[in-house]
Amino acid sequence: MGNETRVMLTHGWCRSSYSALRGLARRDVPVVVADTARVGMCQASRLVRGRGRYRSPYADPEGFVEDIAALCERHRIGLLLPGHEEGELLAQAREAGRLPAGVSLPLANYDNLVRVNDKDRISRLARDLDVPVAPIVDYRSPAEAGARTDDAREYVARARRGNSSKGVRFARGGAALTAVLESMIDDFALDPARLPIVQECVGGDGWGVSCLYWYGERIATFTHRRLQEKIATGGTSTLRVSAVHPALEADAHRLLDALGWHGLAMLEFKFDPASGRHAFIEINPRLWGSIDLALSAGVNFPWLLYLAETRSPAVARAHFRPARRGVVSRWLLGDLLRRLDLLRRGRLLDGLGGNGVRAHAYDDFKLDDPLVLCGEALYYLAKGITMHSLNPVEAGMVR
């Protein structure tokens, strides 16, 4: 299309940013990627037009914003697309006038991002809007949480801020729940004024409803069902399928409509097919890990967002088509890590067996861009060596 606006993606090591890179590059949009690390998926891709590094948004938020501003000027960036939770910092910087003139940031305002990233606040807002949520336990101390719960029931405690399975723990009620909350406060140095949200556990399959909104107006929507997750208790999916679910979609849209949402978001739900009931879990107000499935099913969210910003919302809406149903995508490395963990725990049949579902696409294995899988594997290897974990929790990540 010629003279396209240059885009910079942050958090370049991971699948969500790489999928955004692919979605934009297939439309000939020039993309620069940046990260704290030298290795990763986008860093290894042949599709990038430039690379950069920045200081950690958790350890040095001021330095991070300074580095982003400098990278935007150096690479003549017109659109900045955060790949993960650093969007909140960047929205704050935008409102403080700390981003270079001419750089657009297609995100909700800072206050809305803070509200949505707080699992307690957004769950209570959903409940107020008659969107079903798992019963919430009101308490002011771990001891009170134990006293107000039933030791025969299962509960989930989630730090008010955290991603994937970080800051999530399960326990029966009573003394067991009290002990879990006390350990979470110590382990994550949680502010006593921001105690974890505690809810009764709900069963069912994991579902996601993904949307692009533009100043309160819905542009595109996509729904998927999780077929397999990296850990049994939830978190990142390793296998999922495109689908439809009108009840979940209606509740997702109701919540985003009420927020006057702007930008991308993926809402997570649990749906129990036996009872027909569902419950809202949380909102990811950003690119999400399984976004490659949407691209594979025909909904190129990064490109639609780009069109809305650089052309108009009407142009973006005209390019949206409903997704193809039944498309299956797999996170190859995540599935391998899941299997290795099962084998480590002695579950040989689960670790070696298959589930009979054939994937049509892979998040991290692309024949036309083969080095990205190596970049992803090297990133996990480096984290495993330096931090002794494949899913490390950096200070400030859970709070």
UniProtKB/TrEMBL annotation:
It comes from Billgrantia antri. Keywords: ATP-binding, Nucleotide-binding. This is ATP-grasp domain-containing protein. The keyword Zinc does not apply. InterPro entries: ATP-grasp. Residues 123-310 form the ATP-grasp domain. It comes from the Bacteria. The lineage of its organism: Bacteria, Pseudomonadati, Pseudomonadota, Gammaproteobacteria, Oceanospirillales. Pfam families: ATPgrasp_Ter. The keyword ATP-binding applies.
